[in-house]
Amino acid sequence: MTVFGTNSPVEEEGQAMTQRNPYVQYMYSYPHKTAYRPLVGVDLRDYGDRFAGPGHGLYFHVPFCQSKCGYCNLFSVTGMGEEVMDRYLDCVERQLGQYAPIMEEAGAVFSDFTVGGGTPLILSEKQLERVFHMVDRCLKLEPDRQIIMETAPNQTTKEKLRLLKEQGVTRVSMGIQSFQGQELKTLKRGHSADRARRGLELLKSFDFPCVNVDFIYGIPGQTVDSLLLSLKEAVNFRPEEIFLYPLYVKHGAAMERDLREGMILEPERAYEQYREASAYLMSEGFCQDSMRRFVKTRRGREDRDSGIGGEQRGGEPMTQEKSREFSDCGSSSSLALGCGGRSYAGNLHFCTPYAITRERCAEELRAYMRQEDYARISHGIFLSREEEKRRYVIRHILIRPGLPRDQYQERFGEDVLEDFPLLSQWEEQGYLEKCHGARNLTLTPEGLGLSDWLGPQLISGEIRRKMEEWDHVHGEDHGSLQREPKEL
Ligand code: SF4
To answer: Which of 206, 304, 307, 329 has the fewest Cβ atoms within 10 Å of its own Cβ atom?
Structure first.
């Protein structure tokens, strides 16, 4: 599961930060899917009430891509034609038909709808329209719901963007990763730098309320200068948000072979790139919400337009929208449709079994398409109260404005600093500070940059053991599983 090395935070206790690998694990959710296990006798019909009322998230997974990127650890398959995609949509429609009465009985109303993947825009216009229609027909969305769509340069066309506009999409995210041709090749991305420029230009011309672009640092051969060149180009397109991801190459990803054959990942260089890139984006009027997310502030944009240097903090975010990852207070539920997405129904989390390689993803996809009763939940986890506390802390502490102590107390009846003495240690070490009359716990700029090293320290022994067990069992599979699946 590790990228740049094998440093475990536990082994490293007591070492100076300079000796540590800051890139242990991305904690975007907790627990990781590799800690999920088969479940027996669990039925969504018995948990429908966890979707009662408004404020829930809806996620639609499109598991198809044109080619597999070298670092990809997401659920996606390549080489599928329109006919397979049609059959997939038939299955999701069947799933929706089975979920609809459960959600109706619960009175569920969804406040955001995300279409992710994979590459959602690989679907034809007709298929994309079908996605929106089936959801509209079966589930209730709030009138001012957010609709979020992931896209990629090669699949972005005028016609598809027009359709997204007509469907009321409020946020579009585009994976650019780099504007340097060689870096895109190293990453085995399917698009060229020029295609990325054209795709982003087209996207900006449609004037969506929020456009965000993703970039990667820590790419072998990348330098601070080449990263800044890419970011400068990105800033000129005036996106509302920029996400900066460190490169992680997990077991089973295509770049693993390059690493075996001598390519090296250098955490110290990646960390330096992060620091320079973060300083640059803040000087351009972006404020930093997390280790990865930089949001353009109104103040920053006005200052830039009037020739005054941007400021680091204090501006109001350019857009009111925040992706679910950043706005979810952790108590609402989220329903996933399709194969590869994950649902959260209170302390019950479920999804199809975790897969990275093309062959394992194709196997799971076949199983999904054969499934008769989608309300039967066969893989997931029930979180204990202790794990729910950990999840709450992880989901709040790694993002700004941080963890509200009063809310934690209200929810769990304890003081978070008593439950997690580790947080006081972080404070002593300068990674965490108390704000707003000590009621909020927020990472310092240094702590924010070390989120992928600090976050994993919050994983419980039990979850860590399950993740390691998964690694041990599945680590063997990978070498032989890089072939294209021929058919579904
Ligand atoms: S990184 Fe994204 S675009 Fe690339 S193969 Fe994975 S899901 Fe597809």
So the answer is: 307
